[in-house]
Amino acid sequence: MKIKSIACLLLCGFFSGVCFSESFAFPKNQQDLADIAEKLVITGLDSNSIPPIVNPEFTTVSLASMSLDNAEPVFIVCTGSLKPLQEREVIILPQRLMVWHEVLNIIESDKAFAVTYSPISGSLAAYNTKRDNMYLQLQADGRQYNANSVLMDINTNSRWSQMYGLCFLGTLTGLGLDIVPSYWTTWDKAQNFYIDKPNAKVLLTPRTNKRYGSDPYGSYSDPESFYYNDKLVYPVSRIDTRMGLKDMVIGLELDKKFMAINIEYVRKKGIVNFFFDKYALAAVYDNRLGVVRIFDRTVWYGKDPLVLVKENNKTFKDLQTQSTWDFDGVCRKGNYLGSYMKEYYGIYAFWYAYAAHNPETETIPGKSEVPDSALEIGILEDKTIGEELEGPVEHSGLGVPWN
Q1: Which H or E run contains 130?
Q2: In the prediction, which pLDDT does 393 show?
Q3: How far apart are CA 124 and CA 12, in angstroms?
Q4: Residues 228-255: what's their mean pLDDT?
Q5: Does 291 lie in the same domain as 174?
Q6: Which end of the chain is more exposed for a tag (fewer CB within 10 A), N or C?
Q7: Is residue 382 part of a domain?
């Protein structure tokens, strides 16, 4: 597959064209959706060039280790009911396979979902595609909007934004899809986390003539390739300099507001406490799987949100009570024993593409972050702060959901 360049004239015209209503770029009305349809970029590819994966076959983690390299990217998608992440049913998809297909569809008797990946925007998003009695099947259209893949469903031939999970053209215009939890990590982390776990299975190489040993856009093992440099293949409506163009972020959407969390920043700090509109959240780096997980710090309604700090590679603690929490957001020791922090999920994307879609997004690092100075009490003196709680919390409304 060859990527065709965009003429300078087209690039300049596109940069001056996109204008969204009100403050957020997320489409709010029919005109906003029509604007997307008018700004699509032809790439030289079509839906036949990027066929989706259907009827996928899987193997065990142990057997997959014979054909995967430790450092290569893989996508972990949660397909089962809520449990600790290590025990939850998941599928593991190598990026080297998904880059040639961009969409994997799974339809079963009681559920349907699509894992979507836009290589140019670095965007990973899994969606629940069961809507009422309809089981949608998605595939790449071949065109781009703001350097992000356009999708189509074979059910109605409608067109969808991969990053928004929203239909902008066709019979299903205005319909949105709910996110299915997904994580982006490397094979060595995924293998160690799920080795000998029957609840995890790995995608087998599809039986096609695709060149699965190569990547048409670059390589995540090459720091000079497209995935790391400042070159853009397709134009975007605006450039935001708050982060590096290819910084990988988790894009979180709550109540139609947006937050971009810089993954490398959280990895270096371990835990970042922040506020997002009415939500008190924490981005926590789970070293076991090499991913950032986002938790709600308001555990007991009526109490102030917790302030979280790292304890070791398996647990963290809250400053208020010094209770110990694991990376599934469950309190394992202390006054909050039996309580659970709700986890929020977003999509993965390169900053340049996410910011072009959501120019009013807040960011981490950013002004909503709780400063380090607020974390010093209790760490140096090993003392609690705030209100004391007596005994394990009961009836917090956030008890462990899988007990």
Answers
A1: strand 130-131
A2: 65
A3: 28
A4: 96
A5: no
A6: C
A7: no
Same domain, 154 and 274: no
Could you tell me what percent of the chain has a pLDDT over 90? Answer: 76
Say if residue 123 is in the same domain as residue 196.
Answer: yes
> 138 and 75, same structural domain?
yes
Q: How far is CA 165 from CA 8, 100, 116, 185, in A?
A: 30, 20, 10, 22
Last residue of a domain, one of 148, 179, 203: 203
Alpha-carbon distance 314 to 327, whole Å?
Answer: 7
- Distance set, CA 135 to CA 128, 129, 239 (Å): 9, 6, 37
Domain of residue 371 covers 248-375
Q: Is the pLDDT of residue 280 over 60?
A: yes
Structure tokens at 292: 């950032």
- Reported as a pLDDT band with limits 50, 70 and 90, residue 19 is very low
Give 57's contacts (C-beta < 8 A, 6+ positions apart). 203, 204, 206
Strands (DSSP E) found in 34-122 = 58-59, 73-78, 90-94, 103-107, 112-118
pLDDT of residue 14: 29
Q: How many domains does the chain have?
A: 2
| Exposed / middle / buried, residue 281 (Cβ in 10 Å: 0-12, 13-18, 19+) | buried
Are 253 and 197 members of one domain?
A: no
Q: Establish if 368 belongs to a structural domain.
A: yes
Query: What gap in Å lies between CA 22 and CA 20, rounded to an integer?
Result: 7
Using one digit for the tens of pLDDT, what is the confidence trace for 122-156?
999 999 999 888 899 999 999 999 999 999 999 99
In a domain? residue 241: no
CA distance 65 to 61: 6
pLDDT at residue 58, rounded to an integer: 97
- Same domain? 277 vs 198: no
Residue 176, CB half-sphere, CA atoms under 13 Å: how many? 12
Residue ranges of the alpha helices (H) in 242-382? 263-269, 351-357
- For residue 356, pLDDT beyond 60: yes
Grouping H, G, I as helix, E, B as strand and the rest as coil, residue 60 is coil
Residue 229 belongs to a domain: no
The answer on 179 and 253 residing in a single domain is no
